[in-house]
Design goal:
There is one protein chain. The chain is of the alpha/beta class. Helices cover 30% and strands 25% of the residues. The chain has a single domain, classed as Thiolase/Chalcone synthase (Peroxisomal Thiolase, Chain A, domain 1, 3-Layer(aba) Sandwich), CATH 3.40.47.10. A six-stranded mixed sheet has the order 5-4-6-7-1-14, with helices on both faces. A four-stranded mixed sheet has the order 8-13-12-11, with helices on both faces. β9 and β10 form a beta hairpin. The model has no long low-confidence stretch (mean pLDDT 96). The chain binds coenzyme A.
Amino acid sequence: MTVSDHRAAVLAGLGTCLPRPVVSNADLALAVPTSDEWIRSRTGIAARRRLPPTADVHDLALAAAANALAATDGEPVDALVLATSTPKRPLPGGAPEIAHRLGLGPVPAFDLQAMCSGFVYALATATGLISGGVARRVLVVAAEAYSRIVDPQDRGTAVIFGDGAGAVVLRAGAPDEPGAVLALDLGSDGSARDLIHLPGSSPYLAMEGRQVYRHAVDRLAASALAVIKDCGWTAEQVDTLVPHQANARIIEAVAQRLALPAERAVCAIAEVGNTAAASIPLALAEAVDAGALQPGHRTVLTAFGGGLTWGSAALRWPTVRSVRSEL
Ligand code: COA
């Protein structure tokens, strides 16, 4: 395909999938010394989803991907990027399996690991594939099963993380179309890699919650501002901010840093917790269905995760369908 400087990546469909069972704060309080009141007031989380033992992260990814495809006009996709930090197995990557199970044919398919920033990194990668002429239509899938790496006895992490998946289809289009990715910002800081990591000595995730909190607010706000500036917008012109759903207090703090009214920052964490890479597409679906995200809105997605990694994307929200299901 010819490489075009003017070929934009345009959002064309959105799909999500959440597993069952639902695990409430009260359920968790049976296993660890915590309380519904503590969890709600410190994180904004009331419940999270957990993959049943009979399913794996690929089942979630597949369902979200199929839903995103169903939300489009059915044109075939010609590349698939899977963002996950909780893969079913160390190798091979899951993306070729998802592509095969979807019947996409021999399309390029690969995994991307940027922890909770994975969706924005994958969106940027897909944008590059499209604008570079490598692909015309890319399926970006973010799927996570943190329940498989969180210690159920660790109240610092068990209360926060949940399982889920979200996916979008990006297609080649014009930069002035609604849905065109207008600006991207990505970054990392490996010096703080141990703040959220899997220690070799344990199968479970270790997190320095308080330090992560501080970095998250700084990086989310700075990265969001970078794309706002690149678009020639001011922060007050942003209609909808869709931050990584790490903690409701982090979302509020980021909105404050940007001097945005709190209601313009989507907070959809209450029923799903922090679903890592899947959190932004899940929050997008919630916002679309609640009518908070409307066509034409100046929209900024901003993510932060272990690594450390962070990233943001800006677009004008298009008229787009969202298809959801449960597993
Ligand atoms: N239930 C009850 N008490 C808890 C608790 C829980 N689940 N977790 C911690 N505590 C206690 C601590 O032991 C501590 O008690 P102490 O004062 O007697 O020592 C107290 O609550 C405060 O702990 P602290 O860790 O300072 O709480 P916090 O306000 O920072 O909240 C997090 C903890 C994890 C909710 C918060 O730091 C956070 O959300 N961090 C970011 C995490 C994140 O977003 N990770 C993913 C990034 S992609």
